[in-house]
Amino acid sequence: MYSFLSGILAEKTHTTATIDVNGIGFQLVIPLSTSQKLPGEGGKVRLLTHHVVREDAELLFGFATEEERSLFKLLLSVSGIGPKMAITVLSGLGIGELKKAIVNGSVPALTAISGIGRKTAERLIVELREKVMIEGQVESGQPSAALSKNEVLVQDSLRALVSLGYTKQNAKTAVQKALEKNGQGKLSAEALIRESLKQI
User: Within this chain, do residues 118 and 70 fall inside the same structural domain, yes or no?
Assistant: First the structure.
């Protein structure tokens, strides 16, 4: 419903920001990484948003960058992780450190975050490792030491799917499913694209 809010920063704390948009104050729940990027009160601000509607409340979550918002949405896809826990996870580690912990399977780094036990940490790793790898490849377009050996193959396949008219998110999901079905290192670029198309 809301993609972003732009206005004057009326109030801020480490976990919330209130933006005055033409006389209407919107309060957003934010991660620590976003809080650190905010100007002083009275300054102009633009935050990307994610709107959550529940039976008992409507909540707006704000992010300084698309990377933060994308990772927040990935966290929400994990069973047992709600929006407020996702914000806690984002705040517990820097974005780069969180992605590294997930990709490298570092349970100790994740359990160091308040409220994250061993089972939840293991679930984060199992459910998000491939997604974070693919996300990193698409966003950066460059190889990373933390990513899999198939990074070039995956990157080329994602670009091909996007060029065929599929959205980046649909392409990511399809490639991930194709990799899970066929295993890492078992497909050529052409074969991965064909298998991915079957998943869309």
Answer: yes
How far is Cα 188 from Cα 68, in angstroms, rounded to an integer?
A: 32
Q: Which range marks the domain in which residue 78 is found?
A: 66-128
Helix axes 151-163, 168-182, angle to 10 degrees: 130
A 10 A CB-CB count for 70 gives: 19
The answer to whether residues 50 and 61 touch, using CB atoms and an 8 Å cutoff, is yes
Residues 32 and 9 in one domain: yes
Structure tokens at 75: 């966290």
Distance CA 189, CA 171 (A): 14
Angle at 66 between CA 151 and CA 200, to 5 degrees: 55
CATH of the domain at 162: 1.10.8
**pLDDT, position 194:** 80
Structure tokens at 184: 């890492």
Q: Is residue 89 part of a domain?
A: yes
pLDDT number for residue 147 = 44
Does residue 156 fall inside a structural domain? yes
pLDDT per residue as tens digits for the range 26-79: 999 999 889 889 999 999 999 999 998 887 878 899 999 998 998 999 999 888
> Is the Cβ–Cβ distance between 51 and 2 less than 8 Å?
yes
Q: Report the CATH number at residue 37.
A: 2.40.50.140
